[in-house]
Give the backbone structure.
Amino acid sequence: MFERYAVYYTFDGALGAAGADWLGWDIARATAIKGAREETKRPRKYGFHATLKAPFQLAQDRCEADLRDAFSRLCTKLEPITLEGLKLQSIGRFLALTAEGDTTALMTLAGTVVRELDAFRAPLTEEERTRRLKGRLNAAQLANVERWGYPHVMKQFQFHATLTGPLKDTRAQLVRDELTEIFTPLLSRPFHMTHLTLVGQRTDGFFEQILRVPMTGSSPL
């Protein structure tokens, strides 16, 4: 049993390897990588990923085996999607890879994952609720916390793979230049999303892959 679970899109091939090396944690192999830098300390434990369903505690009447089965069944109904590409972008003081072009299919995919697996999510604790209500949330995001346990879902969802913690102004451009040099040659156009990954958070706080399952649906849900 893990402390929390989540559904991610995880990266493979040279891009996945570069992301793991950069962050200092290989989520697929559950292995730390030496030489991790200070700028990646905050996102490191999550691994190189984009979140579709944010970390949640398992409901009391559910077990991990049930979640695995439901996740696997869902992936057989989900259709692979193609994005125009990915780009390096600032999100506040963080740097991340985000989606380019029309993201309608991606928004639909993420919303379906949130809805279909929400029965496995335990209600937020007061501590979790307080933490997720922090920050400048709009009315829709506040409503999402109450309904789905997380603000950035449904129409408030943004696909992003976080690469840094908050950067100081004196370091931001240097880190951006380094990330551009590393990742730009690895960003294929178009970018195909063909699988999803169920992950679990260990007692040390780090996330690791539980199941990675191809999306094999042939028509939109």
User: Anything to note?
Assistant: The chain has a mean pLDDT of 96.
